[in-house]
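Hi there,

I know you've been waiting on this one. I reran it after we fixed the sequence typo, so this is the corrected version. Both the input and the resulting structure follow.
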Amino acid sequence: MALKLGSEMILAKKVYDNKKVVERFVCRAWITVSQSFKMEMVLQNRIKKFYEAMNEPIPEGMDAMDEISLIGLLKKYLEDKRMDYSINCAKLIRLWVAEGFVKGEKGVPSEQRAEEYLNELIHRSLVQLSEVDDVGRIRRCKVHDLMHEIILKKAEGLNFCHVLGDEDLSFNGKFLPGSVQKGTNTIAVEPINRNVQIHSLLLYDIDAVPMLLTYSRRFGKSIPLRYLSLRGTKVNMLPKSIGKLQNLQTLDLKQSLVDALPVEITKLKKLRHILAYSYHLNPEGLFFTARGVHIGEGIGSMLDLQNLCYVEANNGRGLIEELGKLRQLRRLGIVNLMEEDGPSMCASFSNMKYLEPLVILSKDDGILNLQTISNPPRYLRTLTLQGGLSRLPDRLPVLRSLVRVDLVNSRLSYDPREVLQALPNLLELLLYNVYGGECFCFVESGFQKLKILHLLNMKGLKTLKIHEGALPVLERLEIQPSQQMEVPSGICLLKTLTMIDFFGMPREFAYSMRPQDGQNYPIVEHVPNVFFHEFHANGRKILRLR
């Protein structure tokens, strides 16, 4: 972007046109900007240049977008087109373990040791952070572009992996552990069947059922396949022959169409990770619902399982009792739990001492009966409860490791604040349709470490009180209460606040905080980013205060 004429612009143009620079980017755009400019026009011109460079149609309605919408569109485009690739850290760790790069020790699973190695690589700047979640956990990472090129050349030289696609349907069969396959059902699988060294197979953008049937029949017990990913494919069922993959450690079915696992899955005694769910955001995009998979009897014999996300609970009490045998579980998601199965579920939780994330969704937003849990997992870090609650679990305050709690459609008859503020390490709290009272109050010394607070769909709320000394390190606040709510004057006391999002509030509410004439502007004047989200039939419109 050229800001002014002179030597700086000439130097920038030389860099822009440099052949080595051009080779590093999918597309480029040169935009000249005057000293007096409108940001909307700059963003529109930049987006148009990018789309023209890629010979792609310019998005409709772009000329009517505000600055925030344009920034979002530009960010999405750049993320789709960027050359550098980041990877989910949990997925990377599972692949490392599948390839045998990391070995566990007595009392320390391979995944934990791999996470320690990854953190060491990040500390030494050999691996870069790409994304950190709201509670400070590393989500995605990548390597520098130059390092990435070196790794690819090294992998090719060692015949470490191979990519199959529509224009490359075969290979020499000499590569060692991994295969990434992408394309359609026309891809030949004979080379895969001949290769006995494959440890990992990842399939993308295909309806892989016929291929998988052939593949599973021929592999048998002698093939050391440890990682199978059908994520995002159109696969809607697994064949019974899946039970032949005796070395399988990870089965990734996320966002596929598979809704049930064959009983033969219980033959896979080395299986450590079953990832089989689809997320669906509610119409306002404020929380998710999930679909799991049906699993038959015998799941309790799979003693190496660490991840089981998500499983449908409506197979009854027998399944829930079997879950109690899975003492190595680190992550568990339960969908469609019925009220009468709550006590059995609580008994099973008591055996899962290593559990960290736990997600429980009731059937049809019915009641979750979780009062009888006597020995909750002590290392639990994140807890999601979606469904009605007569009261919060009695043992909730003893979970000192909790950093995030999501309560959705709890419909409590009392203010849960007093229980929740007793959690000493809580960093993020989401409350959606949790309490129907008219007043919600944050008192002095409450939530001393909380950084993110979501107060959503609290329809009866009229007054939000924030006392001096409450929420001392809060950085982000989201509010979607009733149409009757007053502007919370206590926001002015939250000196660390960097962002506020108001959802579905009346226009008068927003106008009262306008910088030029709003009587409530002093309340939010210190907050750098204040947004108002309006919901319409054709989508959401976001307005920025200033």
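Quick highlight: The two ends are 24 Å apart (CA to CA).

Best,
R. S.
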